[in-house]
């Protein structure tokens, strides 16, 4: 995988499922990350070829939850991101998905307690030896590119020191979010100069992340930092057509296409509703008639019907054998 001159969809919890990734790619994303998935959870999964949908599903053995879903159409661009604090577990997960993804990424930047309390995400930033162990173990045993994503440390010098240590492991690229753990996205601006310090110190590609809010910001952050590529998160949730060089599409149309793809790929209803709520909150409010109707939806079929996809659902049923689509997670709806 090439990491220069790319526009990248960042990993986002409950957002980065197959429908959202496919939509981002349709609008111009070159590389798409799935959401961070914890190693313990993935190790409880089995790989299932879903001939009904044309996907590869990693399904939790007990709950039958689809933990990760992908397809051939995205195989050359999708990145699997893991949350881990153990090299052996991490390698087991990587080995299980390596044949179905383009690259494997280790999350070292998430500041949320669900990640850091398990020693994962940003908790790894203070453990350079463990970082080195995880990344070198992956590099020795995988044939696909290995990358990781970090945040700025307390000082730029500390960040550069860690980045140099990471570079020695042989990773293909390093993504840097230009905020510290204590910083908050909606309050504290990203420090592009901190990313620049890292870029100046390394020879491997650096992916810049932070405050890419419109298409022109891809080039602006690359020019300001010298980064090889740029990554977008929240602006993509608001309107994933941010990847279009021609400009944004009307958010209602983007939302509708997202729902269509969720129906097509049998997306988890909770993920679907979460992403739609994020879109609605940006452009309207959850107390609107639409917001209240969405809250009442219990199944993916309910969501599809709310947005006018009854006929499309019937067409899919006919094309897939005439029976109603059944998800592994039907009991969770």
UniProtKB/TrEMBL annotation:
<dbReference type="GO" id="GO:0005737">
    <property type="term" value="C:cytoplasm"/>
</dbReference>
<dbReference type="InterPro" id="IPR035587">
    <property type="entry name" value="DUS-like_FMN-bd"/>
</dbReference>
<dbReference type="Pfam" id="PF01207">
    <property type="entry name" value="Dus"/>
</dbReference>
<feature type="domain" description="DUS-like FMN-binding">
    <location>
        <begin position="8"/>
        <end position="259"/>
    </location>
</feature>
<dbReference type="InterPro" id="IPR013785">
    <property type="entry name" value="Aldolase_TIM"/>
</dbReference>
<protein>
    <recommendedName>
        <fullName>DUS-like FMN-binding domain-containing protein</fullName>
    </recommendedName>
</protein>
<dbReference type="InterPro" id="IPR052582">
    <property type="entry name" value="tRNA-DUS-like"/>
</dbReference>
<dbReference type="GO" id="GO:0017150">
    <property type="term" value="F:tRNA dihydrouridine synthase activity"/>
</dbReference>
């Amino acid at each position: 995988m090439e990491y220069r001159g790319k526009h990248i969809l960042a990993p986002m919890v409950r957002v980065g499922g197959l429908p959202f990734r496919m939509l981002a790619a349709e609008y111009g994303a070159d590389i798409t990350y799935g959401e961070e998935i914890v190693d313990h959870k993935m190790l409880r999964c089995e790989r299932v070829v879903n001939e009904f949908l044309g996907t590869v599903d990693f399904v939790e053995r007990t709950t039958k939850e689809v933990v990760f879903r992908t397809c051939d159409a995205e195989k050359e661009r999708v990145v699997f991101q893991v949350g881990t604090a153990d090299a052996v577990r991490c390698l087991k997960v990587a080995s299980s998905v390596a044949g179905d993804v383009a690259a494997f990424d280790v999350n070292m930047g998430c500041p949320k307690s669900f990640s850091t309390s398990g020693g994962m995400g940003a908790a790894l930033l203070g453990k350079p030896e463990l970082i080195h162990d995880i990344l070198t173990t992956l590099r020795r045993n995988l044939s696909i590119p290995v990358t990781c994503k970090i945040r700025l440390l307390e000082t730029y010098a500390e960040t550069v020191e860690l980045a140099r240590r990471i570079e020695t492991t042989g990773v293909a690229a390093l993504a840097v979010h230009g905020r510290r753990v204590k910083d908050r996205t909606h309050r504290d601006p990203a420090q592009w100069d901190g990313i620049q310090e890292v870029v100046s110190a390394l020879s491997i590609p650096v992916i810049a992340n932070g405050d890419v809010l419109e298409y022109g910001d891809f080039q602006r952050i690359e020019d300001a930092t010298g980064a090889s590529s740029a990554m977008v998160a929240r602006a993509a949730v608001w309107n994933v057509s941010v990847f279009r060089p021609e400009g944004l599409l009307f958010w209602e149309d983007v939302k509708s296409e997202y729902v269509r793809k969720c129906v097509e790929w049998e997306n988890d209803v909770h993920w679907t509703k979460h992403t739609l709520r994020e879109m609605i909150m940006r452009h309207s409010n959850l107390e609107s008639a639409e917001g209240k109707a969405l809250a009442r939806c219990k199944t993916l079929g309910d969501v599809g019907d709310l947005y006018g996809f009854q006929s499309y659902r019937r067409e899919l049923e006919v094309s897939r054998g005439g029976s109603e689509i059944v998800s592994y997670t039907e009991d969770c709806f």
